[in-house]
Amino acid sequence: MAERDEERSPAGALAGRLGVAWAALASRSTRAFYDRLSTRYERIFRGHGVHAERMAAILARRFAAPSRCAVLDLGCGTGLSCRALSRRGFQVTGLDFSARSLALSRRADPRIDLVCGDASALPFADAGFRAVVSLGAWRHFADPRAVVEEIARVMAHDGVVLIGTFPPKLGGFFAARAGTSTGRLAAAAYSLAVRALGHDDDVRAAHERLTREALAERFATVRIVPSADGAHLVRADRPFIAGRSRPATPLRRSPGPRAGSGAPA
Fold first, then answer.
1. Exposed, middle or buried: residue 180 (CB in 10 Å: 0-12, 13-18, 19+)?
2. Number of domains in the chain
3. 124-167 confidence digits (pLDDT tens)
């Protein structure tokens, strides 16, 4: 489902692919898929680490005082990006809908605030974050425009958004050549197949295009940022409100974990 890198051995790569395929077939929702795969996720999707570090490095260059910078990680999963940001001193809040993934993230670093929630209805006050990142989860957001609206709402006037990585791979394994009829057909067929299984996983080029259009409507600048292995991030800076930059407001600390939101009972 999510993007991956090849394992360090052919046997490991095969085991990872079989594990992802089994989890997808055995689950009837994207949430159930990630709950089922959570204990093996970071071993299978090793390639996410370099992109997480890339995002953290970009924000470290942008903000001179990370300890006073609240960052929200949307679709944080088992906390890979959260930990990369925390190591650089940022105040990190992670949000995900997989309780099992959040439980593993909390075990790995109890200092990170974790919330179980919906990216299209964020349980945070306005203007509370200086940055928002999302790595590997954006493909699962059925309505990226609604998520962008929520990001703009919770972001401070000088905020930065980083979303990645694009282009997504089919099933996390196979790259469909963008801009070709074969690639478009493969992406469309894959999207229909996973939807039949009950999953939200949009790998079409149109999904990135819609995301960039939505960001352009709500942020002053939108641009492509190269990452690793031919992939790229989408970056947006400075959210608008009603066509104007959001006025400066005091930053508020993001909320801590809510009772019962992180781990299953």
1. exposed
2. 1
3. 999 999 999 999 899 889 899 999 999 999 999 999 999 998 88
